[in-house]
Amino acid sequence: MSPILSVRNLSRNFGAIKAVDDVSFDLAKGELLALIGPNGAGKSTCFNMLMGQLRPSSGTVQLMGKNIAGMQPRKIWRMGVGRTFQITATYVSMTVVENVQMALISHHRRLYSLTSFAHKLYRDKALALLETVGMADQADRHCAVLAYGDLKRLELAVALAHDPVLLLMDEPTAGMAPRERIALMQLTADILAQRGISVLFTEHDMDVVFAHSHRIMVLNRGQLIAEGTVDEIRNNRQVQEVYLGGGTLFKAAEDDAHA
Amino acid sequence: MGLFIAQILTGLANAGALFMVASGLSLIFGVTRVVNFAHGSFYMLGAYVGYSLMQALPGVAGFWGAILLAGLIVGVIGVIVEICVLRPVYRAPELFQLVATFGVILVIQDLTLMIWGPQDLLGPRAPGLKGIIRIMGEPVPQYDIALIAITPFVAIGLWYLITRTRVGTLVRAATQDREMVGALGVNQSWLFTGVFFLGCALAGLGGALQLPKGGADLLMDFSILGAVFVVVVIGGMGSLPGAYLAAVIISILNVFGVTYAPQSTLVLMFVVMVVVLMIRPFGLLGKEEVAGEHGQTGEPERPIKPAGPRIRLLVTTLLVILALLPLYSGNFAVVLVTDIMIFCLFAASLHFMLGQGGLVSFGHAAFFGGGAYAAALLVTYASTPMELALVLAPVSAGLAAIVIGWVCLRSTGVYFAMLTLAFGQLLWSLAFQWGDVTGGDDGLVNIWPSAWASDNTVYYYLAFTLCVGGILLLRQAAHAPFGYALRAARDSTRQAEATGINTKRVQWVAFTFAGTMAGLAGGLFVFSKGSIFPNELETARSFDALIVVFLGGVKTLSGGWVGGAFFEGAKDYLTRFEYWRLTLGLLIIFVVILGPEGIVGSLRKAGERIGLLKTPEDAT
Amino acid sequence: MLELKGVNSFYGKAHVLNDLNFSVDRGRVVALLGRNGAGKTTTMKSIMQLVRPRTGTVTYQGQDITGWSSHRVARNGLGYVPEERRIFTQLTVAENLEVGRQPPREGCTTWTEDMVFDLFPNLAERRQNYGKALSGGEQQMLTIARTLMGNPAFILLDEPSEGIAPVIVEQMARAILQLKQDGLTVLLSEQNLHFAQAVADGVVIIEHGTQQFVGSLADLQAHPDIRDQHLSI
Predict the structure, then answer these.
(1) Beta-bridge partners for A5
(2) Topology of domain C2-228, per CATH?
């Protein structure tokens, strides 16, 4: 089966610095692929190119056979790519359900309508999406007062609004408590499995990465240095050195705790 | 060649005062995020205070001492203003403080009038520098040479202070994140006050320094404000070298303009600004505007809801009272309320793009005056009937908004605001200087309604229908998907763009829509008055609308027209008194300090407190 | 050294902190644990008086500091390291440190630029770089270094391990242990229990703004039920 997303020789320079250097990979349908690496390794740059915020210096990004490199974010979205942000981006002056309705209104291309009331449009569909992420009971709350974890779930509902084929999630669990992290990723994984959506995500929490990804790529200084299954990555010497660390300090503390 | 050099020298000399005022404004904005509209007033005060001191102090030392003292005194006045007026409102929503500074302008205007009287003052010449020197045969005043020599020292001194000293480092840090600076043990209140002192002292110094060249008059405050904004923007917000460079460019341009293109002097400056911003959206030496994300807290805006039964009843009652007005009151009230309704529509149109879209325009009068002029020109030159002119006025304003919006929306934030100001000034200059067509200062007169509508009462109903209709349309737009898309673009451009919303286009359409509505108000205005003068296009007119929107409450749906009715009503009442500006200014400052959420916002809060309105469960 | 008594804080009408009572003794490292939105950051801010508690008192070294302005709190030796790496991105590393610099304080280490560079060697080579050019880990180090320049006796660390690579997190933990050895008292908020276990002596758990557990790390280990209920890893 042909991949959903196919990235070839993707590079981006900032002046003399190669932020992303000749990165290539494929993402299959229904796959959960993690992109990890040290701070400043080029993960964000790479992500921003996939989402259209940045134009690649060279290379191609193919979404189901069409090159989307250099396209604007809103065009990429219309082609079936949803995204969530590292720092949540929601409309704070609206209610929870209106946030989702907004994406639906955009999807149905009714942004310039003057005759209808926005809060009545696609409300049922929006409520159903909130139900999926377990937020239906908070639908009419003011977005500005939500807890952080709930904002993350709201973002997920928004990203799912236009039935995407691909989700790009930038540190989806950043800023959440351990239990919430696992729960959110479990929820994401379930929804994806149900709907056959592919996901590429970055993450710093190794518990999340090791528990949920089907495959992991490691970026260091702009280059892919490793790719493989959870066990392969966990035991990769180079990855331990540049990213995972020895874990000796924490291990000692852990042993003390159980002693 | 001699003349050429002499003109460049004159330009360089003029740049001195401009640079000092502009760098002061830029510093204050950088640290406190307050766009200090009153900065021109401090410049004016510097001139008046300097004048009085020069009368009192004799000789060379007295002259220069007077200039320094004027700077210090104005700095101290600035500190008083900062402590009394601005400190209470720093926590208010962003840009709200500019309303307070607008009040300060009015107060200073009247106080100056009280103390120094209405006549222009001729500045004394500098002792020891009264002569001229000849450069290639052209006379250049010695004082100009002195100014050219002094300014770079001030500029370098400032630059050293900001980039090389601890205080400067703290100032730059506070520009980005004041709360954090405070948490690191720096007393930020005094840092703010210190910056305000420095900024105002610079303005005062500029005012006093230019005395031998320009004297002192009561119009100085607004006349320099436009140029100062232009300099700050062309140079780049927060860049001192940029401000100097821009001050020199603008001053030299003005000198040459006076000689070679006297018809276009006013336009020239703004054209240069537009061109610079088209090429470099953050000015010549400016960096991308990074607003401090921390320490600027307002209550988050609430979700909007269609009005509940109580509010509907209230509005319906109000409309009935208005509709029956001609039956129970005299002609005077009918004409007055017509004016107020027209102004309310104008304010509501600005409120739509500002409140829903976060687009702060300093030049909305361009569309109000533009619509009015379009109608007046059509009547004067094409004998267009009123009915058609009332259609073409908003259409023309809308077309202008399409063009102006396209240019302005390439920038964001303060730069956007300044660009709109520039276009407002551009149109004003056109109306003012293109006398053959627009009548210049004499305006266009004899623009009367068609016979059927010439009765005040009939025209009242016409205005009532169009204004109420327009305001309701703007309100409907806010509830419609379009209004939501506009708010989405404001709340999170990232998310909006990532979900298929072309944010720039949405904003462009909103800008055009608001411009069209302001044009309609302008059209109604011109037929109500029978005449139009360039002052309807003035920056002061744009500021009126802006003040009204903030006064009414940006984060509420009805802030525009409520503020408009309050302001226009208060103004009409107060202008009967001699020192009405003082009273109005104090009233504005009073409202700002007491109700930082505007009239509607504060009333809503009060209503919730006494249980008249339902408190949303999520109110924070 | 630091004591909270009956602290209640609000954002507008939202009751964020509900009757907090705990204290931190000199020379200890106490971890404030709880999920996001539990009130950890508000606790930090309430101590710094960036959020003014509506009722209750915060006592520091025997002085009631409730209602003080935050710069005064800082000048009394309470150093605050905020979350989200709030450095001054438009200033250089050296200038960032300059902003944090305060006069020497009796009984506290007087930090110099060289000393913080010893603690965080990565920053030394970045001395003249602008804050925005630093990586996330370096920015986090700079926030701590900047606060140390104020010669604090006590530091509040808000989520020092959030969003940075595991290998840097480990460096950060070593730095905190080093500071503790030098006699600094620390209150840190964390979601990462590994991190807390590695550095902390005492633990305070809060949930929904209410404290659920106060005790030593050993106490917490002895009550796996509490650990699982509130932190579940």
Answers:
(1) A27, A63
(2) Rossmann fold (3.40.50)
